[in-house]
Design a protein that fits this description.
By secondary structure, the chain is an all-alpha fold. The protein is about 60% helix and about 0% strand.
Length: about 230
């Protein structure tokens, strides 16, 4: 093969994606899929099966904040104020996920923690293998531990995590560990001088720092790209 023929072939190969509508459409699809997955990982929707994010008050509040921010000029005062509110919502959800990760690591699931905690919009209640037992465990965790924010309704996303743990025969072990390391918070009241505060076993680990710099900016761009398309 001569040099001219080789050059022509390479040029054609480089131009092929642009001239191939089907390939271009596939590339756009996977790009959108990646952005959606990163946005879901950042927002940690409490009802992952709800694509509208309107069924739960907390999900609806976060989604409305994201929509409002997508309409504003980046860097403006309103944009920064909404970003602060969005970060506060996300931080609460990250803290809950961190507690679950810590319990999983205690139980020896360090390598599997990411996959066990990964719940996306493709989650379907019909796919649950032991829905009743998972629901009972979720209720028990809410009543007997401090894994969740007691001012919010139970995050449905963890129903899917518990179903996976039940399949691994680790559901009861998770509940026992959560009781030990995250006991229920005492009701607020006047301190008693006769009774010293009880010392419970507490799992103390440093929570990962929030996404910084380039990663946070990329997540924001992904999110706004998706929301702008919906708004339009």
């Amino acid at each position: 093969m001569d040099v001219w023929h080789l050059f022509c072939c390479c040029s054609c190969a480089q131009e092929e994606p642009e001239n191939n509508p089907l390939l271009s459409e596939m590339l756009r699809y996977f790009d959108q899929l990646g952005k959606r997955k990163r946005a879901q990982a950042a927002n940690l929707w409490n009802e992952p099966a709800d694509d509208t994010h309107m069924e739960r008050d907390d999900d609806r509040e976060l989604y409305n904040l994201l929509q409002k921010r997508a309409r504003l000029r980046r860097g403006s005062e309103g944009y920064r104020r909404l970003s602060f509110d969005i970060s506060a919502h996300r931080q609460i959800r990250r803290e809950v996920k961190d507690r679950w990760r810590q319990i999983l690591e205690v139980l020896g699931f360090s390598a599997e923690a990411d996959s066990l905690l990964d719940v996306t919009s493709t989650a379907s209640y019909s796919s649950l293998r032991q829905p009743l037992q998972a629901r009972q465990l979720l209720t028990a965790l809410a009543e007997q531990t401090s894994l969740f924010d007691r001012h919010c309704s139970l995050p449905e996303r963890y129903l899917f995590v518990l179903d996976r743990l039940l399949i691994l025969d680790a559901g009861d072990d998770f509940l026992s560990a959560a009781r030990r390391y995250y006991p229920p918070e005492a009701e607020e009241g006047p301190p008693s001088e006769e009774e010293p505060p009880s010392q419970e076993a507490v799992l103390v680990t440093l929570s990962p720092a929030p996404q910084g710099g380039d990663e946070e900016a990329a997540a924001v761009m992904d999110e706004e790209s998706l929301l702008v398309k919906l708004i339009e």
